[in-house]
Amino acid sequence: MGMKVLLVGGGGREHALAWKIAQSPLVEKLWCAPGNPGIALHAECVPIQAEAIDTLTAFAVEKAIDLAVIGPEAPLTLGLSDRLRERGIAVFGPSMAAARLEGSKAFMKDLLDRHAIATAAYRTFRDPAEAHAYVTAQGAPIVVKTSGLAAGKGAIVCSTLEEAHAAIDRIMVEREFGSAGDEVVVEGFLKGEEASLLAFVDGERVLPLAGAQDHKAIFDGDLGPNTGGMGAYSPAPCLTPALVRRAVEEIILPTVRGMAAEGYPYRGILYAGLMIDGDDLRILEYNVRFGDPECQPLLMRMRSDIIPYLLACASGSLEGMSIDWDPRAALCVVMAAQGYPGAYPKGDAIAGLDRAAEVTDTMVFHAGTRGLEGRIVTAGGRVLGVTALGDGVAAAQQRAYEAVTRIDWSGVQYRRDIGYRAVARERS
Ligand code: AMP
Ligand code: GLY
After folding, report:
1. Model pLDDT, residue 56
2. pTM
């Protein structure tokens, strides 16, 4: 008897997960809540929102789900994993207590501090006057962050003191990010190159995935405000095998051990956002889920069936496992709606999806789309993640953009330079 799997979420990351999970011979039936029109090609979509944890739990029990895979951070921080585990369902995803690693930057920074794990110097504040005084004393550049979840937009890197004071007011006084800004983390600015190292974690053991890098800024050249991510690729040439080993031993394992020792063992995928500056390696952020869009190129490169890893994380049995990777590179270009990461229109008809799908070794993952009268229309800020494999990052990049240029809608925006650092490194 094959397994019944429930995937929670409806973005580009979940489309990649659905595509990968559906390929497993171990799976008999895959549901996705709420899913999207791309996911509907691989799973039965059910109209339950990812945050509706009561309804999701009832659905999982009714369908006798064998494994639940939780994509986004919101249901994790709301405790969906705990609810499902209470009902005897295997869950890929951390508990509510463990999800604080992403849900509360203050919690994360204090945990790193308790276990002497290298990160940026920081202080946390609930009073804007104290935050202003600290920033004045520290000087710029400096980074001001909401402690709570803000869809990747709550970290404001300030090159001047004026910007830093304005950031404190935006978060704490104008409350631009709502209650996510009740507490603020002010951090020292770190220079260097960022890379993403994701790892399967089973409570104790850590199995790193291939390296990845994303582009968070909206404009070419990594300029402009941060977004959830405008593109990503794997491998990340700057993440050498030696650095991966150090990241696991100096950062990820001590974090996982610290969490287990404190009574909230971590199970699921752990995303470490690293800052590399020569020999200096620090952890910038943790996410408690697959990165979006890092997930898309990573899963295109993963040759192994993903289900055994998801089960092993859920049941504490990662010991002795390894992952088979496609030696080729994969690169994802995010196509976004006009105005993103600010306000954007919805409902624009998307043309060219069929022609883009004809490009070899390319997947058009849906992020913010919906079906309307037989057409696919935009329904979010990040709309599509066009992802291609190639012999090297430059080849993957060329193929991804070949597919991107076949797709169009009114006001579409995307970066033209995804992967530029890796391509330059490849050439030299
Ligand atoms: P976070 O929300 O903490 O992941 O931060 C989002 C982005 O802001 C990171 O990917 C970095 O590009 C930038 N950033 C965050 N913290 C720092 C820091 N301490 N120094 C430099 N850049 C940072
Ligand atoms: N791509 C960064 C993130 O998922 O947070």
Report:
1. 98
2. 0.95
CA-based nearest residue to 206, from 262, 263, 250: 250
- Token pair of 400, please? 């991804």
Q: How far is CA 219 from CA 30, 98, 167, 172, in A?
A: 37, 34, 21, 27
Of 276, 285, 294, the residue with max ligand 1 atoms within 8 A of its CB, to mutate for a pocket test, comes to 285
Burial of 67 (0-12, 13-18, 19+ CB in 10 A): buried
Residue nearest to ligand 2 atom 4, measured at CA: 291
φ, ψ of residue 407 to 5 degrees: the values are -110, 145
Characterize the bridge pairing of strands 362-366 and 122-125.
unpaired
Q: Quick check: CB of 157 below 6 Å from ligand 1?
A: yes
pLDDT averaged per 10 residues, the chain (length 428): 95 98 98 98 98 98 98 97 98 98 94 97 91 91 90 85 92 88 92 96 98 95 91 95 97 98 98 96 97 98 98 97 98 97 96 96 98 95 98 98 98 97 89
Find out whether the beta carbon of 194 lies less than 6 Å from any atom of ligand 2: no
The predicted structure's pLDDT at residue 63: 98
Mutate to test the pocket of ligand 2, among 287, 334, 382, 418 (most ligand atoms within 8 A of CB): 287
Which is the closest atom of ligand 1 to the Cα of 154? 2
Query: ω into residue 341 within 30 of 0, thus cis?
Result: yes
